[in-house]
Amino acid sequence: MDESLGPVGDVARAVALDRVGERLAELWRGEPTLQDAARVVVDTVAGATGDSCSVLLLNEERPELEAVADAGPGDPLAAPVPGGRSGDGGTASAPVLLSGLCRGTVTLRPSSRLPDEGDRRFARALADRTALFLANASLHERRRRGIEVERDAAVGNLESARRVAEVLDAMPILLMTLDADGRIELVNSALMASPATSRRQLELLERFDQHYADALRALAQMTSNSTIASFADGLDDVRLGRIPRYEADLHAAPDGVEHWWHAIVVPHRTGGGVIITHDEITERRQAELAAAHRATHDALTGLPNRALLTDRLDHALARLERYRSTLAVIFIDLDHFKLANDTHGHGFGDELLVQVVTRLSAVVRPEDTLARFGGDEFVLLCDGLDSREQAEQVADRLLHALDEPVRVGGRTLRQSASLGVAIAAAGADASTLLAEADAALFLAKERGRARVAMFDEGSRRESVRRLDLMQALHRAIEEEELELHFQPIVSLPDGEVAGVESLLRWRRGNLVLGPHEFLDVADSLGLTLPLGRWVLGAACRQAAAWRAEGLRRRVYVNVSADHLGAGLERDLGLVLDRYALDGSAIGVEITETTLMHDPVASIRCLHLLRDMGVSTEVDDFGTGYSSLAYLKDLAPYGLKIDRTFVAGVHRDDRDRQIVGAVISLARGLGIRSTAEGIELPEQLATLIELGCDAAQGFLLRRPAPAHDPCPRTIDLRALAGQRG
Predict the structure, then answer these.
(1) Handedness of CA 291, 292, 295, 297 (dihedral sign)
(2) Cis amide leading into 110 (omega within 30)
(3) Most C-beta atoms within 10 A of its C-beta, which of 61, 74, 454, 517?
(4) Cα separation, 393 vs 454, whole angstroms
(5) Residue 266 or residue 9, greater confidence
(6) Are 183 and 210 in contact (CB under 8 A)?
(7) CA of 425: how far to CAs of 176, 385, 457, in Å?
(8) Taking a C-beta distance cutoff of 8 angstroms, is the pair 455, 420 a contact?
């Protein structure tokens, strides 16, 4: 009970005052209004004492709002203005003071008497209780508002975090953050969905308590991936402050397909740890690798190109100085490839090259390098061989890999190759070794193509001679050092000169070189076709000159494989027109091997020549692979029996049988048979006996320039009778 009421107080006022305090205390613990507080005071006083009471309270934040409570309806109270004197007009009032400011008034009006000092003390006590309520309510409100602010801040932070997470998940870049201890804090959805996060990696993270660098090192050890191990060290260096930033390209194949990422590690600005981003660069990396592959490999065949071959050869020669083994370079050149390419087009030639590469690749060792050196030339680098003999065995496998015909674009043809082999000597360099293999290749061509030649000292001398010939041959064409010699083709047995074969000669100073001494060089220089056209022109010019003299003998020219597939019929037609000749003035001789390289194209060309009236003969018959079916379709004017059979026709029964068979074959087809290489009377007599139609050779007449007159007939009986 409050003793401040003094002697005038009574039990009712004391009880009222205590109840006001209790009820106000209960009230502020909820969410009361000022009106609620005023009503508590009024109702409690009225109920305990029977006196009337009114309360005016002002809102602290908005003073224009006030709460008023009085004794009830029908009992209006004149509430004094705050700050007025208490006791005026039969009332006792007291201000409600809080922190020195008046927050309202409490006014008492006794029901049956004038207010006294006890009423005034009672009013002041009520005002104090009300002020205490206001203080507690204000404190409670501030606490409540603080909680709401914190709650709102937490909700705001949560919303911000949610929005940040949405932004990170929407980013295509792969992102991860680690705390100061190197454990994973945050991973965005792109990283979790990418191949950069594998099941194995997740298992390792769980094993290493989310410590990312440790899990990466374990993964690198399991997969032998050095890029991942280096990245783990780099991100730890950034996390520990050793370096400010780390970047690296990583690769892995968690799904069986190789992927590449460019990773960047930077430190957190606050709180330690690092931020890691992964940008997938697989397409860019693949493009870079493809570009690098194109720079070092042939686009058509996929083989290493000359640059890569030279690099590997340099490394192989360097190893040769440390390890005792045999290193070989094999130069491979496709015989008469240009003919097929020019005749049927580059698409045909490309497909042929691919098939040849497939066959060659099937017989080389996995550790060897087969490279396309250029055009129809290839080089095989054989490292770590046991001996020179093993190199020869490898070359033989390559040679025989092309034995069987190939079928390209619906055509069947044989594609042989010539091979030159060079063995690396101590201190050899790449250019020298390649030059030696090329020199050996030249020997293989000179010896008839479709064979292997080994480089030796003889090859070295031949290489020097060949280089000299190459330089001189250019000058020979320009300075007209070339000429034709002519050898008669004599009818058997009457001895009439039916025609002449034109043979190319090169007058080089005091020497006269035959075609076998320089045609391979011309072939390697790409001069075969220009030489062939020169021969056509010179032969037609001489035929026109002889016809002007009354000699209507047919002039035969030898045609190369290159010319056969490069418009021979067109070139010949132009030259005939130039000298006003008809086709009967000229004949062409084409070797059996050349014709059978591409029989279909050969048949087409020979038919065109026949339509022009040009005579065609199959040269060196019996040494190639022609079939009777193709021979029927070729329909040549004649067959020339190769000198290898004629050489022994008079003393070797097998040669005699072969020559006799060819003569019978020609007679059966209704075409002429001509034997070449007649050097002995016995050979001539045997050929006459066998019924051969014509002959040619040193016995009858050696080749001679046009100004050296050739008789119209030759006395064969006298020549055949000179038997020793």
Answers:
(1) negative
(2) no
(3) 454
(4) 12
(5) 266
(6) yes
(7) 59, 13, 12
(8) yes
Residue % of the chain over a pLDDT of 70: 87
CA 710 to the chain's CA centroid: 67
- CB proximity list for 72: less than 8 A, separation 6 or greater: 46
Decide: 369 and 381 in contact? Cβ < 8 Å: yes
Cβ atoms 497, 712 nearer than 8 A: yes
Residue found by looking up tokens 């640059």 in the block: 307
Amino acid residing at 666? A
User: How deeply is 587 buried, as exposed, middle or buried, from its count of CB atoms within 10 A (0-12, 13-18, 19+)?
Assistant: buried
User: Running DSSP on this structure, what letter comes out for residue 81?
Assistant: P
Name residue, tokens 């390792």. 204
Strand boundaries in 99-143, DSSP class E: 101-109
Residue 282, class by beta-carbon neighbours within 10 Å (0-12 exposed, 13-18 middle, 19+ buried)?
middle
- Report which of 485, 547, 550, 488 is spatially closest to residue 715, judged by C-alpha positions: 488
DSSP, collapsed to helix, strand or coil, labels residue 77 as coil
Q: CA-CA distances (angstroms) from residue 106 to 23, 114, 262, 342? A: 16, 17, 78, 123
Assess contact for 189 and 169: CB atoms under 8 A: yes
The Cα 5–Cα 94 span in angstroms is 14
- Residue 8 banded pLDDT, cuts 50, 70, 90: very low
Question: Is the entire prediction scored with pTM above 0.90?
Answer: no
DSSP string, 22-87: HHHHHHHTS---HHHHHHHHHHHHHHHH--EEEEEEE-SS-TT-EEEE-S-TT----PPPTTPPTT
pLDDT digits (tens, 9 = 90+) for 18-49: 888 788 777 766 667 788 888 888 888 888 88
SS3 content of the chain, % helix, strand, coil (to 5): 50, 20, 30
Instruction: Using alpha carbons, list the distances in angstroms from residue 227 to 197, 199, 224, 263, 599.
Output: 16, 19, 9, 11, 59
**N- to C-terminal Cα separation, the chain:** 173
Structure tokens at 582: 């008809």
Preceding peptide of 493 cis, ω within 30°: yes
- C-alpha to C-alpha distance for 343 and 567, rounded to whole angstroms: 8
Q: Which range has the top average pLDDT, 193-207, 250-264, 342-356, 535-549?
A: 535-549
- For the chain, domains (ranges, CATH) are 3-145 (3.30.450.40), 174-286 (3.30.450.20), 299-455 (3.30.70.270), 479-720 (3.20.20.450)
The amino acid at 520? D
* Structure confidence by residue, pLDDT tens digits, 440-492: 998 888 788 899 999 987 777 776 777 777 778 878 877 788 999 999 999 99
Q: Distance of CA 714 to CAs 494, 650, 689, Å?
A: 8, 21, 18
DSSP assigned state of 304:
B
3-state secondary structure of 93: strand
